[in-house]
């Protein structure tokens, strides 16, 4: 492949981008306004740009076409998405990531995978965006069936707790974009954060906990701790993880 | 070194920001209130004299710019809030402060539920708080209240809060172009978690909201004004955009000097009750634009442009009573660079907005800018609310620039240069207020 030979950031053998050229700090400030384009409304999301094989021309996108159903909030290097893409080949899914370099990496990875695995990975893409501010710009009411929050930034200091991606106020927005019955998956290796997220979800009137039987039956649950780089690092170091899986229910008032 | 140049620039946290003048009109026009900076001025039209406010709270009156004022729908209460982090609730009978609510951060918007039982206010963090005022004794002793969080726009400054006419929804608009419609629950103190819709379409900050209703459509439509020079019409149940009116281009037509597009932000909206009209205040236009809403076709169109030719008058805030007979507006600023004048406020009233006779008749809208003597309360009112009866033209021109800057600061996020950003981070205090 001529492109990868000329481009040292891609591996010659696998055709995939090399992570070390896309390294970025783990922490990114969600409060600062990075300048990236945000769609004016969910109708303005460019499905053709993200899923070219499935939406060859912009004219095809109408109310009956497929919509994105899975969102990985803070997708990092895309580990979970790549695993989910083949597990759910008929479902459109996206990652949302704030860091520029990391988003580039995921983009390149998906493009390379589409080339090396024809017919696969057409259903996955990535947005560079601040999901804490702009989720309603990307998804219609009740559009998503799954949302993932894997190893989010703990924001340890109490004064920074309001920057946590799972918070009582932000859960209102996640409940809005999730369909009734949709599921929120969270996992972290920080115990205090795990307790915080569980408490926020437990106290929110529009979420209820999944039963142990449902957790057992869900093929996605296992992927949370094994599919991502973060998860693999925790396993390597013999760390413990704290999970909370909640279903979106109708408002109980 | 860094700090010196920073302070020199005046972009200091502690500098008091200049604030545009705002106005509110009592629902049955019993009184009119104007706030200029920290100064709250009320004129009682029933007794035809200025009001002396009484405040026995620990922190009496406002110490910093008042940013939002509102009368309750039944006219019994009046709320004022702003940069001093206080929300004050006043009785409109006695004009005593009956409650003072503390906010952690500066307040940017305020609203009262239609039944008069709850006061909602938004702070600089984008959190909307709710205060239960069920048992607030209008004639009783001062009773301070605590607010509970209702909902939040993550890290956005909320510019307006409005309750829908049927009281079922609370609408919040922010500087990040978004409008959120949330179900106002039976127990608001537990939070408004259910989002009905988002009205997305504006490409700049949303500065103003108003509901317009008709007899056939009591729940009405939502109107929003924005920095993108448009006024948009929405159906809040679905969040769908019904129509967009490019008022910016209308303002450019009226102005002979051809101001650039960036000035043409819509700064305020006021729906004229019992009519299909809405008044629009827009930067760059000396006067107001009247838009007509067609309820059956769900569209907006320009009905009339009302110019105020004698003075350099660009309204900063508008208000009208439920009868919709008169539209009051004010232009003004809390601090002028010129040391001679502390502040400026100028009031104007437009009448003749209501339709008379056959609705189809073409010359129904004969809005007239009233002269100073024709305004209810005339000289006494103007003296009280403006601070002085007549204002020098030169002061006006000086104020015009300051007003434009103040509105910009309010609505557009300040872009700090990198050096000052580091300095600001050092002094930033996000700590929760000690209980």
Automatic annotation (TrEMBL), chain A:
Its EC number is 2.1.1.33. Its main location: nucleus. One of its GO terms (cellular component) is nucleus. Pathway: tRNA modification; N(7)-methylguanine-tRNA biosynthesis. GO terms for molecular function: tRNA (guanine(46)-N7)-methyltransferase activity; tRNA binding. The active site is at residue 153. It comes from the Eukaryota. Transmembrane segments: none annotated. It catalyses: guanosine(46) in tRNA + S-adenosyl-L-methionine = N(7)-methylguanosine(46) in tRNA + S-adenosyl-L-homocysteine. Keywords: Methyltransferase, Nucleus, RNA-binding, S-adenosyl-L-methionine, Transferase, tRNA processing, tRNA-binding. Belongs to the class I-like SAM-binding methyltransferase superfamily. TrmB family. Catalyzes the formation of N(7)-methylguanine at position 46 (m7G46) in tRNA. This is tRNA (guanine-N(7)-)-methyltransferase. It comes from Linum trigynum. The lineage of its organism: Eukaryota, Viridiplantae, Streptophyta, Embryophyta, Tracheophyta.
Automatic annotation (TrEMBL), chain B:
WD repeats lie at residues 59-100, 199-244. The keyword Repeat applies. Its main location: nucleus. It holds the Pfam family WD40. Keywords: Nucleus, Repeat, tRNA processing, WD repeat. It is found in: Nucleus. GO terms for cellular component: cytosol; nucleus; tRNA methyltransferase complex. GO terms for biological process: tRNA (guanine-N7)-methylation. Required for the formation of N(7)-methylguanine at position 46 (m7G46) in tRNA. In the complex, it is required to stabilize and induce conformational changes of the catalytic subunit. Belongs to the WD repeat TRM82 family. Forms a heterodimer with the catalytic subunit. PANTHER family: TRNA (GUANINE-N(7)-)-METHYLTRANSFERASE NON-CATALYTIC SUBUNIT WDR4 (PTHR16288:SF0), WD40 REPEAT PROTEIN 4 (PTHR16288). This is tRNA (guanine-N(7)-)-methyltransferase non-catalytic subunit. It comes from Linum trigynum.
């Amino acid at each position: 492949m001529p492109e990868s030979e000329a481009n040292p950031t891609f591996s010659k053998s696998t055709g995939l981008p090399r992570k070390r050229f896309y390294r970025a700090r783990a922490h990114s400030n969600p409060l600062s306004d990075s300048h990236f384009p945000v769609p004016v409304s969910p109708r303005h999301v460019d499905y053709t740009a993200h899923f070219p094989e499935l939406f060859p021309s912009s004219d095809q996108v109408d109310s009956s076409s497929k919509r994105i159903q899975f969102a990985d909030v803070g997708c990092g290097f895309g580990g979970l998405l790549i695993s989910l893409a083949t597990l759910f080949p008929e479902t459109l899914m996206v990652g949302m990531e704030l860091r520029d370099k990391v988003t580039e990496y995921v983009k390149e990875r998906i493009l390379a995978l589409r080339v090396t695995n024809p017919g696969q990975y057409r259903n996955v893409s990535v947005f560079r965006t601040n999901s804490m501010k702009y989720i309603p710009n990307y998804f219609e009411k009740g559009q998503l069936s799954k949302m993932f929050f894997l190893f989010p930034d703990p924001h340890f200091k109490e004064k920074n707790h309001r920057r946590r991606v799972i918070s009582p106020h932000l859960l209102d927005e996640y409940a809005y974009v999730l369909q009734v019955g949709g599921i929120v998956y969270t996992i972290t290796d920080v115990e205090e954060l795990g307790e915080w997220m569980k408490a926020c979800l437990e106290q929110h009137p529009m979420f209820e906990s999944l039963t142990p039987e449902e957790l057992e039956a869900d093929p996605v649950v296992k992927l949370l701790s094994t599919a991502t780089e973060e998860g693999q690092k925790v396993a390597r170091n013999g760390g413990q993880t704290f999970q909370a899986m909640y279903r979106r229910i109708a408002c109980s008032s | 070194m860094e700090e010196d140049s920073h302070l020199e620039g005046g972009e200091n946290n502690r500098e008091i920001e200049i604030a545009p003048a705002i106005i509110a009109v009592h629902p049955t026009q019993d009184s009119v209130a104007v706030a200029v900076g920290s100064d709250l001025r009320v004129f009682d039209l029933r007794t035809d004299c200025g009001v002396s406010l009484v405040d026995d709270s620990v922190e009496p009156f406002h110490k910093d710019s008042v940013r939002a004022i509102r009368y309750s729908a039944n006219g019994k209460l009046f709320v004022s809030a702003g940069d001093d982090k206080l929300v004050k609730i006043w009785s409109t009978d006695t004009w005593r402060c009956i409650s003072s609510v503390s906010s952690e951060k500066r307040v940017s918007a305020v609203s009262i539920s239609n039944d008069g039982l709850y006061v909602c206010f938004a702070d600089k963090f984008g959190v909307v708080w709710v205060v239960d005022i069920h048992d607030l004794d209008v004639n009783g002793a001062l009773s301070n209240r605590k607010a509970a969080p209702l909902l939040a726009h993550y890290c956005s400054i909320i510019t307006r809060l409005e309750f829908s006419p049927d009281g079922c929804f609370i609408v919040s608009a922010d500087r990040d172009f978004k409008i959120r419609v949330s179900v106002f629950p039976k127990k608001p103190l537990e939070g408004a978690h259910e989002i009905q819709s988002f009205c997305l379409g504006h490409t700049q900050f949303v500065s103003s909201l108003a509901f317009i209703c008709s007899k056939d459509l009591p729940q009405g439509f939502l109107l929003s004004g924005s920095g993108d020079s448009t006024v948009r019409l929405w159906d809040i149940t679905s969040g769908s955009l019904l129509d967009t009116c490019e008022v910016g281009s209308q303002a450019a037509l009226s102005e002979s000097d051809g101001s650039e597009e960036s000035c043409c932000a819509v700064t305020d909206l006021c729906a004229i009750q019992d009519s299909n009209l809405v008044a629009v205040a827009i930067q760059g236009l000396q006067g107001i634009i009247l838009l007509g809403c067609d309820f059956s076709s769900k569209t907006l169109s320009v009905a009339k442009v009302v110019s105020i030719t004698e003075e350099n008058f660009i309204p900063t805030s508008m208000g009208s009573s439920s009868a919709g007979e008169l539209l009051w507006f004010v232009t003004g600023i809390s601090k002028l660079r010129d040391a001679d004048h502390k502040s400026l406020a100028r009031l104007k009233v437009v009448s003749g907005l209501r339709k008379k006779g056959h609705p189809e008749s073409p010359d129904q809208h004969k809005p007239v800018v009233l002269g100073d003597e024709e305004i209810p309360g005339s000289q006494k009112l103007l003296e009280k609310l403006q601070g002085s009866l007549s204002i020098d033209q030169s002061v006006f021109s000086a104020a015009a620039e300051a007003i434009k800057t103040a509105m910009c600061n309010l609505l557009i996020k300040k872009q700090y240069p990198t050096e000052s950003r580091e300095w600001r981070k050092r002094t930033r205090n996000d700590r929760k207020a000690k209980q």
